[in-house]
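Q: What structure does this chain adopt?
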Amino acid sequence: MAAKELFHLTGKTALITGSARGLGKEIAIGLAECGVSLVLADIVQPGETKKEVEDKGVRCIAVQTDVSDEAQIKRIADIAALEYGKVDILVNNAGISQLSYTPTEELPLEEWDHVMSVNLKGTFLCSKHIGKLMIKNGGGNIVNIASTAGVTGVPRAPAYCASKAGVILLTKSLALEWAKHHIRVNAIAPYYLETDLTSGLRSSEEVYRKIVKQVPMRRFGKVSELIGAVIFLSSDASSYTTGAILTVDGGYLAQ
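A:
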């Protein structure tokens, strides 16, 4: 294959969770610019993302979906199969952080359960049902959005860290099991990115300076820098890569 064809994604179909806003929305737009047809899923209706994607000239369907509800995941898998006949790429992006950074000994069980249900259970359920479709159709690529917090840990964030560590090991487990089905499963572990969710951190010069002091590149990552990683792991450019955790962290984990 010629080098210029390695990143070719035109004609592929991708399902992206958590795509109504933020990182998921930007990933959807980035894949749309590569000619990928999309299935958008989010706990709220991702209508705005759908409009922006269709403005790129690609096909798109949007389904309001709770990733922690297996019946809803099965439904969107069935819709994708009916609409496109296949899903080539699954991006498990849906995720939440802890609502409060209270001491662990005071963390409400409900908050722990909620974070685990979306971040880990949701990734499992989407992988399970879209994976079934990929097995039936001869293969595909799954890209899980993990976090550096699943590797190093963060004080007062046990649920978030545990959920993202779970995503990393789920990635490795599925990569081993599904390689025989020509399904590659990889994860991306970002550090802080310039998204709506981190706008509060960036608005405080003191807080921002304290965070980036821990990053060798001395800045937050740009969303476009993560989209490149998604495209790489979704394309033939990474055809011999599975079970990998690609860090997009400005060198944070290299220390």
